[in-house]
Design a protein that fits this description.
Length: about 280
């Protein structure tokens, strides 16, 4: 049976470091503060918002919610973000995505200050990662995956890693982070031919297609390490990862669960970047 790489221990370690950093910032009369920009009343967004606020309160980060109607114009949203850019009390800005279809997301990505861009939307922050500079803000999900690998002392140097995702939110930045640790990386996607053969030959497989239970035992071998980033509902309406956990976990060496794996670390990464923004202000 696989070793289960749970996210809670990783998140707790990040939170403990945050608390120490926040205590040090308090000596300088600095309070990390997160501005949450939510458009409309999507239940998923509201649930995520409550979770973030609860986590902020637990470590000593202030949070402010800026709720606007879903039919807000790109210009109006731009003006709000520019206002937050100039507010010295705000350390970081989180804009809930996906944005409504009528909003020009490219314009919003470019208007948010790179110094407050804790969700790594701005092209300059993404560019840093692609240049090998890992000192700034990173997309939270791939950073969470990296923190899990680090916490559980899983060596990456020289390892063959397959990432099944090519998005700018997960796959591409994650590949750059893995390369920085001297891993040998193959990036795959939904149209990759002979995918089971490729993943079976890897030491570590990161799955992020967003297809519940898509990856069964034919995609892995006995010493595979599976990092499951996918989150969706299975045919029974239950939260599931991309890997078919019940079939895969008896076979592989290590696996992250869903829920309780990568996703449970993501919010802690976001908040740690709010603290970093406050430090750099």
């Amino acid at each position: 049976m696989a070793e289960v790489l749970r996210g809670k221990a990783v998140a707790d370690q990040i939170k403990e470091q945050m608390k120490k950093d926040i205590e040090e910032l308090a000596k300088e009369d600095k309070v990390p503060t997160l501005a949450i920009v939510r458009l409309g009343n999507n239940p998923g967004d509201i649930s995520y918002e409550r979770s973030i606020i609860k986590n902020c309160d637990a470590v000593g980060i202030k949070s402010k919610v800026y709720e606007r109607d879903e039919d807000i114009s790109t210009q109006e949203l731009t003006e709000l973000i520019e206002e937050l850019n100039g507010d010295r009390e705000i350390s970081g800005i989180l804009v809930f995505r996906p944005l409504p279809k009528h909003i020009d997301e490219e314009a919003i990505r470019n208007v948010i200050s790179p110094l407050k861009d804790v969700d790594c939307m701005h092209p300059l922050n993404l560019e840093k990662i692609f240049e090998g500079n890992m000192t700034g803000f990173a997309p939270c999900t791939p950073k969470a995956a990296m923190e899990i690998l680090k916490y559980y002392d899983i060596p990456l140097e020289g390892k063959n890693v397959v990432v099944v995702n090519r998005s700018m939110v997960v796959g591409k930045p994650l590949v750059m982070m893995l390369l920085e640790q001297n891993a040998t990386v193959t990036i795959c996607h939904s149209r990759t031919k002979n995918l089971p053969e490729i993943t079976r030959n890897a030491d570590i497989v990161v799955v992020a297609l967003g297809k519940a239970k898509f990856f069964d035992e034919k995609y892995f071998k006995e010493d595979s390490i599976v990092i499951d980033v996918g989150v969706s509902l299975d045919e029974d309406g239950k939260l599931s990862g991309d890997a078919d956990y019940d079939k895969v976990s008896p076979l592989v060496d290590k696996i992250t669960p869903v829920p309780g794996g990568v996703g449970s670390v993501t919010t802690s990464i976001l908040l740690s970047q709010v603290v970093l923004a406050c430090k750099n202000a």
